[in-house]
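ingest -> validate -> predict -> emit
validate: passed (alphabet ok, no gaps, 149 aa)
predict: started
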Amino acid sequence: MKPLQILVLHGPNLNLLGIREPGHYGVATLAEINQQLSELADALNLGISNYQSNHEGGLVDRIHHAVTEKIDGIVINPAAYTHTSIALRDALLASNIPFVEVHLSNVHKREAFRHKSMLADAAVGVVAGFGATSYTMALRGLNEHLLNR
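emit:
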């Protein structure tokens, strides 16, 4: 059986992980998170690819490309676009690819504007507040969802 193919999307400023506000986001770098995800994907027999962009359009284009690549599921940390991007929402809905929204910090313990997600109601699930572990939890959850659909 062909392994399920997962795309992990990282939104704006996540390229600065490890140095950016470690009190909120931890000390793990994006490269370390991607490595953890790659190791977990191998253990779960998943294909995985990662993409980070500070530009909304780059993320939208990558979601569109995921359709032609036959991606089975998406783990997305939309970062600040969580609260503002109808374009990301529309791209994810148009792709019809199941996705999990992920956040390093517990957005509900932060500023009020971070409490609203433009994506959460369309997501398979949302994982937030566990630092870098949020990503591996999201990947495990998405894998279970895809295997049981």
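The chain has five helices and five strands.
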